[in-house]
Write a structure and sequence with these properties.
This protein is an alpha+beta fold. The chain has one domain. The chain has a two-stranded antiparallel ribbon with strand order 1-2. It is globular.
């Protein structure tokens, strides 16, 4: 097996394409103790069918950002490296609240209009 081949159980899409993108992930993503980014995966109950999936399959394997601010900072840095316009969103699978990035379809809007604003519980 060559060095470029992913090990068993590591999907190929999880590889970082280049050093600059890897550095962005290490600055902003939630990391394991060994320093690797953490990816969103279904719970054991979701996999075994004991509960309905809390998020669509499109979320599986996405990098976890601990805060909206960290995700937005990563998005801006990735865009400066040539990525399409990105926006953050809160993962429905997360109890404590973690965030992912997705392609921003409202791309031409100014930044302050692209970032979703939190609603106050008093303004219902």
């Amino acid at each position: 097996m060559s060095d470029a081949t992913p090990g068993p159980g590591v999907p190929e899409q999880r590889g970082v394409r280049d050093q600059a993108r890897g550095e962005v992930l290490h600055r902003h993503a939630r990391l394991t103790k060994s320093g690797r980014p953490i990816f969103c995966t279904p719970s054991r109950a979701e996999i075994e069918g004991h509960m309905m999936p809390r998020q669509s399959r499109g979320t599986d394997g996405k990098v976890i950002y601990p805060t909206r601010e960290a995700a937005e900072a990563a998005a801006r840095e990735l865009e400066s490296l040539g990525a399409r316009l990105l926006r953050s969103y809160r993962c429905g699978r997360s109890r404590g609240g973690h965030y992912h990035l997705t392609t921003d379809s409202a791309g031409a809007l100014p930044l302050h209009l692209r970032i979703p604003q939190q609603r106050s519980p008093l303004s219902a």
